[in-house]
């Protein structure tokens, strides 16, 4: 017998804010850690069993994937914000109307993004100065990644809606299943069948399809409060407009940020294959650590969305403060791990004889680590502003990041070479914070003046 919907939803509008944030964030963090561990294992299999050139081929297109998938995933996250606000307000009819219309937008987005990406795959790789010796493998891998776009959008849409109801556990379980499937398929396709980077791409395609199917099946069987019925399935122009007003700015925020990342990767690619491999190895490990901060931010989007829907601005302020404290505790832990062991971490990807790759990658990891508090402030404030329904405002932080990375690519990398690449992210994070901190304070002041939202409990 199916469980009642209340067993799979949780309100974040009461109780200790820090507890609510952690309870929601921990499954998110574990899920993304697992996902990043898969990416590390994937890169390790490619780098150690195929070669440094293949590792560079996989990494040469990472910024491109961030540009395209960042927009799609950001848009899906934005579509979940009205769902969270309606759930916080207790209006389930409106919530299901948003779910229905978000599905329509997602179908169009998937078709357009997949078609355009596959058509221009080769031109894109040329644009980012992909080294000639890895161009073919990079093209094959990137094309297969583009083919997964519909499934990735489906997973992010469904999982975002599940999380909007305060449930971050089931998406975590689905990530576990799909990640283990991905690793298993990597072993079969790459190690047993010798398919090279094609095997890595096909494994990702199949595992993403599996994850999206699991989410849809869960909603249909266990979380029927999200399933539209009757007139809730109807096209609603106003709901479409609200969804786009939340989703498009969030998608553009990631894409705008990715423009700077692409320029940085293009500048780094021009340094040569060794530096492409160094960047790929460092980024894999860096994401393993920074995804914790990112998912504290993701938790804040749902937390703030539900609480602004329930008209609890007091809990928004307290939640942001508590999230900052959680972030600083985590930062101290990362320093204790990254600073002494960065070199050893890089040896997951390449043989010990590749000393230049190891040294470069470890240097990037250590430099970035000292600036994790800047990243923590960025994601907490950015996602909180998004959850409050002001995605256009948070998008401007992406513009600041883009400007910073473009500046580093144009001036710092030519002057400092690899060292300039190492400082690109810290400079971008600090530039975004210079915008987000005053923007958040201004927004709180504005919301306090809104008579619909009380400033105290």
From TrEMBL:
It is found in: Cell membrane. It holds the Pfam family MatE. Keywords: Cell membrane, Membrane, Transmembrane, Transmembrane helix, Transport. It is a multi-pass membrane protein. One of its GO terms (molecular function) is xenobiotic transmembrane transporter activity. The keyword Transmembrane helix applies. One of its GO terms (cellular component) is plasma membrane. InterPro entries: MATE_fam, MdtK-like, Membrane_Transporter-Flippase. The chain crosses the membrane at residues 21-41, 53-84, 105-126, 138-160, 172-193, 199-219, 240-264, 284-303, 323-342, 370-390, 402-421, 427-444. NCBIfam families: matE. This is MATE efflux family protein. It comes from Prevotella multiformis DSM 16608.
